[in-house]
Amino acid sequence: MPIDREALAQRLMATFIAELDEHVRALDRGALALEKPAEVERDELAKSLFRTVHSLKGAARSVGLDVVAGACHALEELLAGARDGHVELGGDEVQLLFATADALRDTADRLRERRELDGSPIADLLARLDERSRSRARSEPVRPGAAPAPRDPGPGGDVAVPPPPPLPTPAPDPPRRRSTESIPSRGAAPAARDGTVRIAAEKLDRLMTYSGEMLIARRRIGARRGDASELRAAVATLRDDAQRLDRLVRKQVPRAVAAAIERLREGVRTVDRGIDRLSFNLRADHHLLEQTASNLDDEIRRSRMLPFAEVAEGLERAARDAARAVNKEVEFVATGAMVELDRSVLSQLGDPLLHLVRNAVDHGIESPAVREQAGKPRAGRITVRVETRGAGVEVTVEDDGRGIDLEAVREQARRRGIAVPRDEDGIARLVFAPGLSTAGVVTELSGRGVGLDVVRHQVERLHGSIDVSSTPRRGARFVLLLPLTLTTLRALLARVAGRTYALPSVNLVRLARIRLDALGWIEGRPVLLGMGPPIPVAELADVLGIRRTERTAADKVSLAVVEVGDRRLALIADELIAEQEVVTKGMGPRLQRVRHFTGATVLPTGEIALIVSMPELIATGIGMRTGLALAAAGSKTAARRLLVADDSVTTRTLEKTVLEAAGYEVITASDGAEAWHLLQERGADLVISDVEMPRMDGFALTEAVRGSRRFRNVPVILLTALDNERDRARGLEVGADAYLVKSAFDQGVLLGTVEQLL
């Protein structure tokens, strides 16, 4: 068969591009290491860089890229001089290495897009390197006793040069395992030296998809085992019925009928034995399939996993370049570089992390002079830390700079009409709002109003979440919580209004089953108590905008507490089915903008379950005015008496007017002591009380009500101006059923809360 030269050329070029990417990373690592002279052996580093450039030169010549080979040859002469003691690798040489890495990176992009290299950075760099080589040859004497630099051995010599060993790096992590999976080539080429094969990433994507389909098939076969068990039980019942029938009619029917009954019994026994064999074989086959498919799935997953170092190397270079652009000094530290993530996550994680690192340099790290005045080291420190967290991974980007200017964020939010939270953490999270920027000057790095909102969107597309915290003059911290892979997902299956939805397990905190009347109420909405700060409660059906089941206060419900960052929400579902691994499917271009969902999965039953976007769901659920509506037990508002206690006559009058307009009988008191006296004298079905009052405050009144055998079941609503978390928690601790804040007073919320409690 004749050789398809075009196909061969394409395969060779794809392999070369993959090799070029690796060599570019090696040049970046080497140049960064040269900037830390106290941490590396410069002679060994020069030798390693020489081998890298020499290997790349040979590879470029093999695919006919003379401009790349020429640039490598010129750089090779410089590195050979450094290796043999002729040249000192100083700042200019390091800059040249960075320029070479950038030019080669651009070359790789052009080759992937099949664009010409004429006028590209690599062509300009070749001219610079040639001129530098000629100038050095004219002006620099050879040191006595130094061996002459070797001449170019030519194309034949390049092939025999072994690949460069890993470069020494300042990071404490163990040497990075060379991964062949990440190569974006279109074909595959053998690498006989280390027993590995370069394989296209899209091929592994397809393998992972097929493995996911096999996961579904395994579960369907498992379900068939249950069907076989049910069939066995049915046949056993039929066999018993046949035996009873035989005993009843043996002496009362003709011989032919008795023979037919015996044949029926024999047939039942045959079916019974066949089902036994089928069940045994099905069980054995399922066990074999389960074991084989699990091993295959594990191996495919491992082959797709890449160390975080693949991204961390580029971040260090980005931090260095960004710092130089704004005349700052930065020390970059990456820990957990060997933690492995699926390539689908890693490939999409680079851009968000790159933006966070540049943001830390531009917004967070101060200038060297300012840092010295504040008693800090001249060089700011940016740390990227990666740790596994159960079924996910936590990535932290933090700096020791000035922190987020909360006052500037608050002012920008007000100008744009964005609601400003009361707490500092909530204000810090406003940096994720679209178009919000506190940069005073538009630069290449920031100030265009497009930034952290894009980061949040990209992270949420990965089924992850991002949160931020800041300490003035000590720095800011961004925490990303991500799944290890996107092809499969650990999820909780929840049933709502006859449909099943998948809630990603990475966001799950706790599952519970409680009575609805055990919930607390704050500002007109139900909250879950006993897990730290009160957690808002919402019907999953209400959040998704679908029909929900009517409930009464005495009903027991299933709750799933979920979180994104430090935002928590308790979701009520009709049924929480099970937690299991599901295969994620895209929703297609027509449905990709549907709110609250990021994908879908096919369950073993064949039902399609939508995968919920937890960040969107929690944001919607927390923002709802009320999170629960119970079926009314009866309409007797005219007979209900309410006691209102407040030392402000204006407030008492307002509340009395609103409640009487709704049909309630209202009695009022000017403080807690008078309210307690009226309650004992006239009684009441519900108490509404201020907190700060003379003689007896609202907390003491609530304690008195709860300590009374006669009134301990009377609902109490605290309506107060105190809106901090400590007072809210105390109000619920002393026994209040609801806590409403006057600054957010809404007569609809007040009436709704009263109705719920009555």
Compose a concise summary of this entry.
The chain has 758 residues and is an alpha/beta fold. The protein contains 21 helices and 25 strands. About 9% of the residues have low confidence.
Describe the overall structure:
Strands 12-16-17-15-14-13-25-24-23-21-22 form an eleven-stranded mixed β-sheet, with helices on both faces. The chain has a five-stranded mixed β-sheet with strand order 4-6-7-9-8, covered by helices on one side. The protein has 758 residues and is an alpha/beta fold. Mean pLDDT is 76; it is low at 142-194, 440-445 and 632-638.
Quaternary structure state of the chains depicted: single chain
Distance between the termini: 88 Å
**Strand arrangement across the biggest beta sheet:** 12-16-17-15-14-13-25-24-23-21-22
Low-confidence stretches: 142-194, 440-445, 632-638
Secondary structure tally, helices: 21
Number of strands: 25
The proportion of residues forming helix, as a percent range, comes to 40-55%
| Chain-averaged pLDDT | 76
β-sheet strand percentage: 15-25%
The radius of gyration is 36 Å
Largest sheet: 11 strands, mixed
Shape estimate:
flat
Write the layout of secondary structure elements.
Elements: H1 5-34, H2 42-62, H3 66-83, H4 91-112, H5 121-139, H6 154-159, E1 189-191, E2 196-198, H7 201-249, H8 255-304, E3 305-307, H9 309-325, E4 330-335, E5 340-342, H10 343-364, H11 368-373, E6 380-389, E7 392-399, H12 406-415, H13 424-428, H14 452-461, E8 465-471, E9 475-483, E10 488-496, E11 499-504, E12 508-515, E13 520-522, E14 525-528, E15 535-539, H15 540-544, E16 556-564, E17 567-573, E18 575-583, E19 597-602, E20 608-612, H16 614-623, E21 641-645, H17 649-661, E22 665-669, H18 672-682, E23 686-689, H19 698-707, E24 716-720, H20 725-733, E25 738-741, H21 747-757
Parallel strand pairs: 4-6, 11-20, 13-25, 15-17, 21-22, 21-23, 23-24, 24-25
Antiparallel strand pairs: 1-2, 3-5, 6-7, 7-9, 8-9, 10-11, 10-18, 12-16, 13-14, 14-15, 16-17, 19-20
Helix pairs in contact: 1-2, 1-4, 1-9, 2-3, 3-5, 7-8, 9-10, 10-14, 18-19
